[in-house]
Fold Protein adenylyltransferase Fic.
Amino acid sequence: MICPRKFNPLTGIQNFLPESNEIELISDESCSTDEFSKVFSTPKYKIHGSEKEALTAVQMALKMKDSMKFEKAKKLFEHALVLQPLHPEVLNHYAEFLEENGNDVITADHFYVKTLIICPNHSRALVNRRRTMPLVEIMDKQELDRIDRKRADLMNLNLNRSSMKRIKKEVYFLHIHHTLAIEGNTMSLAQTRTVVETKTVVPGKSITEHNEILGLESALRYMNKTFSNHSETLTVLDILEIHKRVLGHVDPLSAGMFRSSQVFVGDLYSTSSFRSGISY
Ligand SMILES: *[C@@H]1O[C@H](CO)[C@@H](O)[C@H](O)[C@H]1NC(C)=O
């Protein structure tokens, strides 16, 4: 009698262990290092080490993980990630570790997404993402609910008390400062405040940086004036009006208009990520 290969001939019980070559690192043909280093050719994603070295580190990390040496495993994964920051196997295995042993579903989900952007048919990452996505959605929902409750609290405050007036003023400058700082404006909080309060120039800072402050401030004033009665819904035209003020001093020709070219957020510079249909 001929036994199918996966049956143990001695007992007839199915062998539940996978083939040993199946648990080795798979290297997907369609996802060569060359391909994704072309895609992510920015200095941030500089490949510091060879693929072989990185995969060896991952193998060792997996062994450490199996023998419950999680600290060591973490160090090895991090090492592999420095060597090959865009390698699908490095990303996916590290993400599995973060999910199982670090309880960090959010970062794990992020890394699965990254893996799938680089390698859209990565079967393990697809399965993993299917598991983490709903969990992250629940977490997002909880976080958004928390923000909603905070907003409700804020709406119930008595804004006319003098202490509250002072806070409102401070927050106004903080808001302008932080909003522009994350876009690369180098003015300090005090300098931002000076420009808004006195409309005078801060020595050594570019005209554009001054204009960004003036633009945002005029947009805030416009919103305060236009939307203070909460009854109306915000329309696309309203948003374009806000945009016109934000950018009016900096780039008058594109202010208040829709952009006609594609732009990318953060570390995504490539058009190929669009083909895969994955977006954040
Ligand atoms: C915002 O609107 C209120 C009420 O109309 C007004 O008193 C206040 O001066 C406005 N603030 C700014 C910065 O324009």
Observations:
- The two ends are 55 Å apart (CA to CA).
- The pocket of 2-acetamido-2-deoxy-beta-D-glucopyranose is lined by residues 221, 224, 228 (CB under 6 Å).
